[in-house]
Design brief:
Elements (H helix, E strand, L loop, with lengths): L2 E3 L8 H16 L8 E3 L1 H11 L2 H13 L4 H16 L5 H13 L5 E8 L15 E6 L1 H13 L4 H10 L8 E4 L1
Antiparallel strand pairs: 1-2, 2-5, 3-4, 3-5
């Protein structure tokens, strides 16, 4: 599915939920006091980009942006375009239903944090803690979905593209989960 609960996750799930999501799973399973939560998986992101018809274009533009990583103006233009494409992609109906069902399981009036959990974020060769934005005090269905898209867009900022290029990480690594 496109939603995975912390209690079901471990380090083996990094390709699906990213480092932060997997670590929250490990902590939950070890009995630490982790608030209840879930991760919108990398597959959910991929499916959303596929349904919007932009996935191939994102990866093509990312490759071009990496090649221009030393040209600040070109990198800025590419990042702005990539972020706008992702923000405009929307959340497909099936994923929307899964996410909102999970959100309501947290409580009918839940206030949550939303944060990217990129696959490479906590990797040794690419340790870049704090690269992605965290959205706090997100309340309500529409705000949750809005911040889910903002987290996805955050994968394509100038900083994120530049850092992936420097680390030699390909476009296939541009993705991951979103922790809620």
């Amino acid at each position: 599915g496109s939603v995975a609960w912390f209690g079901d996750l471990s380090r083996a799930d990094i390709p699906s939920v990213g480092g932060k999501g997997a670590n929250l799973g490990e902590l939950t399973q070890a009995g630490f006091p982790v608030p209840a939560g879930f991760v919108v998986t990398a597959q959910g992101y991929i499916d959303a980009m596929d349904e919007a018809g932009i996935r191939d274009d994102l990866f093509r533009r990312f490759t071009e942006a990496c090649a221009a990583a030393d040209d600040p103006a070109a990198l800025a233009a590419a990042a702005e375009d990539l972020e706008a494409q992702v923000a405009g992609a929307g959340v497909p109906d099936g994923l929307r239903a899964e996410v909102l069902e999970a959100y309501h399981r947290l409580g009918s009036d839940a206030c949550v944090a939303v944060r990217s959990s990129a696959r490479e974020e906590d990797a040794e060769l690419a340790a870049r803690a704090g690269e992605f934005d965290t959205f706090l005090f997100v309340h309500g269905e529409e705000r949750l979905l809005e911040h889910l898209k903002r987290a996805w867009s955050g994968l394509w900022t100038e900083r994120a593209i530049h850092n992936r290029a420097l680390a030699g990480l390909g476009s296939e690594r541009a993705g991951g989960g979103v922790v809620v």
